[in-house]
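Submission checklist for the structure archive. All mandatory fields must be present; incomplete records are returned to the submitter.

[x] Identifier: Transposase
[x] Organism: Paenibacillus graminis
[x] Residue count: 274
[x] Sequence attached
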Amino acid sequence: MCSVFEVSRSGYYKWRSATSSPQAERKALVLRRIIYHFKDNRQRYVSPKITELLLKEGFTISERTVGKYMRELGLRSCVAKRFRVKTTDSNHNLPIAPNLLNQKFATAEPNKVWVTDITYIPCRQGRLYLASVLDLCTREIVGWRLEERMTTDLVLGALDDAYKAKRPPKGLIHHSDRGSQYASADYRKRLKKYHMKASMSRKGNCYDNACIESFHSVLKKEFVYCTKFKTKQHAQDEMFQYIEFFYNRKRIHSALGYVSPAQFAAKFKKRKTA
């Protein structure tokens, strides 16, 4: 075989010993696991999250090494540049709630603070708007609606879904921006019906609602900008898959100790039953 390929026997045995060494075998295994986690999460994870998954599997490896291996494999997370559409109309004479949250984002228990916002979703068949409600403790999206118009019914639908799913106790702080949808009479009545305390950001201060802004940013970079929605029904189906199955149940979150929102929320259920 060596004579056919015109290589020396000593060179062949040197190559075989190198490729079958424990170090080479370990690297080959690590590369296979990196490829698996990258594809299993639809090319959304970069080196920090893949490193955490490898550590959980028992590998001793640094984020720097994982990044190096990903470059060798040509694996790049899907990230697209930001495109902003104005979704907040704060130029109105409707009542404004005080800023009860005041950037205090550390919450000890679920269903104590919910934050909510609207974002634009591009679609070939026409514009869509997503209203999301996020639990500040678990970072779970507890309610959402995707519709054609940015109306009060859009945000009411997301709030109703969240309330039906979680049935929070009285006194929950509901934080939003100063948009006319959240300041409307119908929305204020619904908050009163659910015994929730309204809280609103200061005018023009996106940091007051940073957590839901962060979720929408992740949603755009990991999912929306990487997907071409041909129809509105296609967008609805794909959004359901991303939020309910990937983000809430699978996507690990650094602020939660690298577990998913559903896994983090399960810890509180165990404490109540213990």
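[x] Structure attached
Curator remark: Residues 113-273 form a domain with the Nucleotidyltransferase; domain 5 fold (CATH 3.30.420.10). The CA atoms of residues 152 and 181 lie 5 Å apart.
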